[in-house]
Design goal:
By secondary structure, this protein is α+β, with helices and mostly antiparallel strands. It has three domains: 2-57, no CATH class; 67-142; 168-313, Intergrase catalytic core (hpI Integrase, Chain A), CATH 1.10.443.10. It is built from 14 helices and seven strands. A hairpin with a 2-residue loop joins strand 3 (14-21) and strand 4. Helix 2 (67-77) packs antiparallel against helix 3, helix 3 crosses helix 5 (124-142) and helix 7 runs parallel beside helix 11. It is elongated and about 105 Å long.
Length: 368
C-alpha cells in the first residue's frame, strides 16, 4: 500500500480514502485512475459532513480550550485595522459563554444569546456583525469549511430604511472641525469620501499609483460585488485628495474609530458617517443625473441598487407635476430651469435667439 496524501492510499485494487476524525470515521474506494484532487475533495466534504452531524465531537485544530482561551488565541492571528471592533464583537459572545469549552458551544447557546440581545433591543445589524465575527473565529481556528454554532440559526433581518440625508453645510462644518484633530489622516479620509461618494473599503484598498491628480482620475477597485471604475475628479475631489495625500492617509484603518472621530467633530447623532456616500448620491439624483449614470459612478452591476438615490428626485418631480390639483393651497414657485443648449438642434437654437432678441427689444432681462 502506497500513501498518496493524508488519508489517501493506493493498493492493488485502486485508491482508498479514509476520514478519521473525532466526529467519526468514513471510508471510500475509488478507481485506480481517479484524479487525486477528486479524492481529496471527497475527504474534505466527508469531514465537514461528519462534523455537522456530530458538532459536539468535531475535531478543532485549536479549539480545545474554553471559549475565552480560544478567543485570546484567535485575536493573536488578527492583523487588521478593525481589530478593536472585532474584539468588541467577540467579547459580547464571551460574556454569554466564555467559560464553556468552545467545542461544546452549540446552536442553542447562539439562539439563546441572539434572543437575549433582541429582547434588549440590540440593533439587528449589530447582532449580524457579532455573528460574522464569531463565524470568522471558528473558521480561522478550525478551517474554512469547519462547522460553527451559527450554522442553521435564523438570524434577525435589519430594517430597511431610506438612508438619511446630511446637508452640505454639516459636511463642511465637520471637515473644518476635523482640521483641529491631531491626526490629519481622519480629515483626509472624510473629505475624500464626502467629495467622491466613496465607501471606506475603497480608501482602504487604494494605493498611491491609483490616484493621478494630473489626469484628474482615481482608479477605484471593485467593492460589494460591484465593478472597478475610473472616476473623473472635479475640483472639490482634487482638493480632498490633496489633503489626503499630504496627511499620508493611505492604507487600512478602523472604521469604528473613524466613525467615533467624525461624530466627535459634529456629525449628526443617529446617522452613520457612511452616509456621506448616500448624501452624495441623493444630490446627484436631485440634479437630474440618471440612475444608470449614478450606477456607473458607484460601480453597481445592477442599476436597481441605485434606486434610493434617484427615487426621491422622481417623486419630487411627480409631486410638482400635480401641484394645485385640488386648489387647496398656494402653489410653490417653480424654480428656474437651465437650458441644455448643447443638446438643442439648429432650429431650436435659432428660435431661442429670436425670443431673446424680442425680449431685449422690449427692455426685458432674459431669464436663465
Amino acid at each position: 500500500m502506497k500513501k498518496l496524501s493524508v488519508g489517501v492510499f493506493r493498493d492493488r485494487y485502486g485508491i482508498r480514502a479514509i476520514v478519521n476524525v473525532a466526529a467519526g470515521r468514513k471510508e471510500k474506494r475509488f478507481d485506480p485512475d481517479t484524479p487525486l484532487q477528486d479524492v481529496k475533495r471527497w475527504r474534505g466534504e466527508a469531514k465537514v459532513k461528519l462534523e455537522r452531524l456530530h458538532p459536539q465531537k468535531r475535531a478543532g485544530a485549536i479549539g480545545r480550550g474554553t471559549f475565552s482561551a480560544d478567543l485570546r488565541k484567535y485575536l493573536k492571528y488578527l492583523a487588521i485595522a478593525s481589530w478593536k471592533s472585532r474584539r468588541s464583537e467577540l467579547r459580547a459572545w464571551e460574556k454569554r459563554f466564555g467559560k464553556v469549552k468552545r467545542r461544546r458551544v452549540t446552536q442553542d447557546h447562539v439562539k439563546a444569546t441572539i434572543k437575549a440581545w433582541t429582547d434588549a433591543t440590540v440593533p439587528p445589524k449589530t447582532i449580524l456583525n457579532r455573528v460574522r465575527a464569531l463565524t470568522a473565529m471558528y473558521h480561522t481556528l478550525d478551517g474554512r469549511d469547519a462547522w460553527t454554532p451559527v450554522d442553521g440559526v435564523t438570524l434577525p433581518k435589519p430594517v430597511k430604511r431610506r438612508p438619511d440625508y446630511v446637508s452640505v453645510d454639516i459636511i463642511q462644518r465637520v471637515a473644518d472641525r476635523l482640521a483641529e484633530h491631531p491626526d490629519s489622516k481622519w480629515r483626509g479620509r472624510f473629505m475624500v469620501m464626502a467629495a467622491c461618494g466613496a465607501r471606506p473599503v475603497h480608501l482602504k484598498r487604494t494605493t498611491a499609483t491609483q490616484v493621478n491628480l494630473e489626469r484628474r482620475t482615481w482608479n477605484v477597485e471593485a467593492a460589494k460585488d460591484g465593478r472597478p471604475i475610473e472616476l473623473p475628479l472635479n475640483s472639490d475631489m482634487l482638493a480632498a485628495w490633496r489633503v489626503f495625500i499630504a496627511a499620508d492617509a493611505w492604507g487600512d484603518f478602523d472604521a469604528s474609530e473613524y466613525a467615533r472621530v467624525v461624530r466627535a467633530a459634529g456629525w449628526p447623532p443617529g446617522i452613520a458617517p457612511y452616509n456621506t456616500k448616500h448624501s452624495f448620491g441623493q444630490d446627484l439624483g436631485k440634479l437630474g443625473i440618471g440612475r444608470e449614470v449614478i450606477a456607473d459612478w458607484y460601480g453597481h452591476t445592477d442599476a436597481s441598487t441605485t434606486r434610493h438615490y434617484v427615487e426621491n428626485a422622481s417623486l419630487t418631480q411627480a409631486s410638482a407635476a400635480i401641484e394645485g390639483r385640488l386648489g387647496w393651497g398656494t402653489p410653490a414657485k417653480k424654480a428656474a430651469t437651465t437650458l441644455d443648449v448643447a443638446s438643442m438642434s439648429q432650429e431650436e437654437l435659432q428660435g431661442l435667439l429670436e425670443q431673446v432678441r424680442k425680449l431685449v427689444a422690449k427692455g426685458a432681462s432674459p431669464s436663465r
